[in-house]
Design brief:
The complex is a heterodimer of chains A (about 290) and B (about 240).
Chain A lengths: L3 H10 L23 E2 L6 E12 L2 E12 L3 E5 L6 H7 L10 E9 L2 E2 L7 H7 E4 L10 H11 L6 H14 L3 H4 L12 H13 L5 E5 L7 H14 L4 E5 L3 H7 L2 E6 L2 E7 H4 L6 H7 L5
Parallel strand pairs in A: 1-11, 4-9, 4-10, 7-8, 8-9
Antiparallel strand pairs in A: 2-3, 2-5, 5-6, 10-11
Helix pairs in contact in A: 4-5, 4-7, 5-7, 7-8
Chain B lengths: L10 H33 L3 H32 L3 H34 L9 H27 L2 H6 L3 H22 L4 H33 L18
Helix pairs in contact in B: 1-2, 1-3, 1-4, 2-3, 3-7, 4-6, 4-7, 6-7
Classes of the chains: A alpha/beta (about 290), B mainly alpha (about 240).
Chain lengths: ~290, ~240
């Protein structure tokens, strides 16, 4: 009888043809086995990662991670501090290029484009794969300029009317327009924490990204502001793909369709969120999500 | 004790889950005792014992509500996931099934009270034998199912899944035999109907013990082994 691990190896060999199917373990998975289990690959990937290793100097932060990020899905990366989940999503728009001594090997593609190709210009890449950080970081400019700045430098507006339309549309999509439409010239830093974070999301979506990376976007926000961001993510997924790193298991369960669990640099399990939070395959995933992680 | 419930970083969570588990077992123990006292009352032609069972029903119902509230508290405070979620949902379902067992035990106890209301009307011993036999078998099933629930023992849980079919075939053969009483003496019909209702209640209790076993499998493995409706055993014959 074929075990999960054996089945997984088959999956890894037969990459894009693989269809998603439930991989129920026929045998118990050894706690020490660090090979990834679950549904790594999807039918409609927006980003594909194959055998990704990340090093900070001599230290390996991520080992042999292969994973698809599907179009119009929210995928949540969970795991204890230092497990490599933030490092991994920072690879997806080459944010790690800015870290001294950081080296990424393997292959990461956005659609069909290898984003680590030497000819790749990272400025448009970071527009295509935008990022929202833990702490809201609006520019020290007006609310309007916070959105307009990126649109201008990427040359996305033909004239002033066009620019105003993009600003309004982005703020509407971020659910912020009605709250700020009468104070667009005021500083973005004057907004509440939740509003600032939605401003950052509006800024990200103004430049037409395909993928939005969110690194603990709600950890500095109160529950109401968190609920607004989560609701927004649910809407944004209709047009964009979202990868979110979160320490809140409940948030991962609420907002994502797929969940990936990282542990000490290994991708341990990936699967449908519904399955991961009711019957995870790997004992390490179960320990972590049930609060048994030592 | 079911070790599946332990090992949380927050030890208070262990205590709350374990406490809920023990409380469900406590309810199981009381319901089992209710059943055994009822069977003893039947065996010894002692309606006063059966009356005690009926009087205790309110206390058992109160206990069920209290345990239910405790389980809700665990869900509200801990938002359990994965095996903890399955454990809590399983406990809740077992509690519901135990409540149903209690309901059926009361039916049997009422039968005992009515059957021996006037000594002259006492049912013949041969008729009682069927009810007592079924009762003892079901009591054994319930005790075993509670032990399996306590240990989270999937292998033993799987072994007893066939009990549903076994009890139904037992019930069918009892029904055939009881029919002969009526055929021999039509005046027995009232007593036979009462015995059939008691037998049916006991068979249902047997069914609930199988539910308990299915729940243990779900709690531990996440697998839902309840048979689809089309495959459920029934004594209604196809037309």
């Amino acid at each position: 009888m074929e075990t999960v691990i054996e089945k997984q190896q088959v999956l890894q060999r037969s990459v894009p043809e693989t269809t998603i199917e439930s991989l129920k373990p026929k045998v118990a998975i050894d706690r020490e086995d660090r090979r990834t289990v679950g549904d790594l690959f999807v039918k409609n990937p927006r980003m594909t990662c194959r055998k990704v290793d990340v090093y900070y100097g001599d230290k390996q932060a991520i080992r042999d991670v292969s994973l698809d990020i599907g179009a119009n899905e929210v995928i949540a990366m969970i795991g204890p501090s230092g497990c490599g989940k933030s490092t991994f999503i920072r690879c997806l728009n080459r944010m790690n290029d800015t870290v001294e001594g950081c080296r990424v090997t393997g292959e990461i593609r956005l659609d069909e484009t290898d984003i680590y190709d030497k000819r790749m210009d990272v400025v448009p890449l970071r527009a295509q794969v935008g990022m929202v950080f833990q702490k809201p970081n609006p520019f020290p400019k007006s609310i309007f300029e916070n959105i307009a700045y990126g649109v201008r430098i990427h040359g996305l507006a033909n004239d002033k009317t066009d620019l105003e339309e993009i600003v309004q549309h982005s703020l509407e999509r971020a659910g912020l327009w009605t709250e700020v439409k009468d104070r667009l010239p005021q500083p973005g830093t004057g907004l509440s924490g939740g509003q600032q974070q939605r401003l950052c999301i509006a800024r990200t979506i103004a430049v037409n990204p395909e993928v939005i990376l969110m690194d603990e976007p709600c950890s500095a926000l109160d529950p109401i502001a968190t609920a607004k961001i989560e609701d927004l993510m649910d809407e944004l997924r209709q047009k964009f793909t979202i990868a979110i790193v979160t320490h809140s298991m409940q948030q991962a369960a609420r907002v994502s369709q797929r969940t990936a669990y990282f542990h000490l640099g290994d991708l341990i399990e990936v699967g449908e969120t519904d399955q991961v939070f009711t019957n995870p395959l790997h004992p390490l995933t179960e320990d972590y999500i049930t609060g048994r992680f030592g | 004790m079911n070790a599946q419930l332990e090992g949380h970083t927050m030890r208070r969570y262990d205590a709350e889950l374990t406490n809920a588990h023990i409380r469900v077992l406590e309810m199981g123990g009381i319901v089992l005792e209710q059943l055994n006292v009822t069977l003893k009352a039947l065996d010894q032609w002692d309606p006063s014992r059966a009356r005690q069972v009926i009087e205790r029903d309110e206390t058992v119902r109160d206990l069920e509500k209290m345990i239910d509230a405790e389980i809700v508290q665990v869900i509200a405070k801990r938002t359990p996931v994965a095996k903890d979620l399955r454990a809590v949902i399983g406990m809740s379902k077992v509690l519901v099934d135990l409540g149903r067992v209690e309901e059926k035990v009361i039916r049997v106890a009422e039968y005992v009270v009515n059957a021996f209301d006037e000594e002259t009307n006492s049912p013949p011993e041969t008729l009682l034998k069927d009810v007592i036999g079924m009762g003892r078998a079901v009591s054994g099933h319930l005790r075993q199912a509670l032990e399996i629930f306590d240990r989270g023992d999937v292998a033993s849980a799987e072994e007893g899944l066939g009990a549903r079919k076994e009890l139904l075939s037992w019930l069918s053969s009892d029904l055939r035999r009881l029919t002969t009483f009526v055929l021999e003496d039509a005046r027995m019909i009232g007593q036979v109907i009462a015995a059939v209702l008691a037998l049916n209640a006991l068979e249902r209790i047997g069914e609930y013990t199988v539910n308990l076993r299915e729940n243990v499998i779900y709690q531990v493995t996440g697998e839902d082994v309840r048979p689809p409706a089309a495959h459920r055993e029934t004594h209604v014959k196809d037309s």
